[in-house]
Design goal:
By secondary structure, the chain is of the alpha/beta class. The chain has helices at 17-30, 47-57, 78-83, 87-93, 126-137, 168-178, and strands spanning 2-7, 34-38, 64-67, 100-103, 106-110, 144-148, 182-185, 192-198, 201-211, 227-236, 239-250, 255-264. A 6-stranded mixed beta sheet has the order 3-2-1-10-11-12. The protein has a 6-stranded mixed beta sheet with strand order 4-5-6-7-9-8.
Length: 270
């Protein structure tokens, strides 16, 4: 079985220290094979905030894959925003803005959907859509095929329709048809799991998107506490099992606890 932990929107600079320690304990207990950090790592893309994020990440087990969010680009330093928008991000996480991870039963593809010319909106372009689709088609049958980005592609609340990824109308069905199983994101600080469809709608493949809440920040929303997702996948004798668990921080017990488990039905034979 493979285990993936999704941590999103920690917004270092607004993090709650006791929640940071609780999440580090959870990560140590769960020992995920890989950890995904789906953007808005900092609140204002400052060096000190990235340094705090880097110290946190160095304490996580296994490899960590990260993508920038809109908050990871300088807001007030306009010169840096235009001339070197990812400078502080790259100092903390390296040059690669769209890393990949592959194992026997996992294929994880990352997209940078942030755009320096916009304050909060995100977008995907045709080159990104094609690159991800090509990699998805090359996946092995036993692999869980995942894509991580910051901006959402489905909205549960009407107020979040304006937060949807620009270009999702073409990207999502293209990726589903190419073999996508699970797309994970953040940005809106609301956790939920939602189905996705290909170009043929209900007659074609089905995939899923899993949104994560804010993992560490005081900027919680909708009465939902800090939370993370834990994704477990196994493939035995060509039979896939996949589950997305939501773990919420419980202040009374000072730990993260499982509050919801969603079993995903994966389309295969395609």
């Amino acid at each position: 079985m493979s285990r993936v932990m999704q941590i999103s929107d920690p917004h270092f600079g607004t993090e709650k220290p006791h929640v940071v320690q609780a999440l580090l304990r959870l990560a140590s207990e769960q020992q995920a094979d890989v950890t995904l950090l789906s953007g808005d790592i900092t609140q204002r893309a400052r060096r000190a905030q990235f340094a705090a994020a880097g110290e946190f990440i160095r304490q996580l087990p296994g490899p960590v894959l990260a993508v920038p969010g809109n908050h990871d680009i300088p807001l007030f330093n306009l010169i840096a925003r235009w001339l070197n928008p990812y400078g502080n991000y790259r100092r903390a996480f390296g040059e690669q803005l769209e890393p990949e991870y592959e194992s026997k039963d996992l294929l994880l593809l990352c997209l940078n959907t942030s755009r320096p010319e916009w304050h909060k909106d995100g977008a995907v372009n045709s080159a990104q859509i094609d690159r991800v689709a090509q990699r998805l088609r090359s996946a092995r049958p036993e692999q869980l095929r995942m894509v991580m980005q910051h901006h959402p592609v489905r909205a549960r609340e009407e107020s979040d329709l304006t937060n949807l990824l620009i270009g999702y109308e073409e990207a999502v069905p293209t990726w589903v048809d190419a073999g996508l199983d699970l797309l994970v994101g953040g940005h809106i600080h609301l956790p939920y799991v939602w189905p996705l469809r290909g170009h043929d709608g209900d007659a074609g493949r089905r995939a899923w998107t899993a949104q994560a809440g804010t993992s560490l920040s005081s900027r919680v929303r909708g009465g939902i506490p800090n939370s993370v997702n834990l994704i477990e996948h196994a493939c035995e004798q060509e039979q896939h099992t996949c589950c997305v668990e939501r773990w919420d921080y419980c202040a009374r017990q000072d730990l993260f606890m499982t509050v919801h488990s969603h079993t995903l039905v994966l389309s295969r034979g395609d």
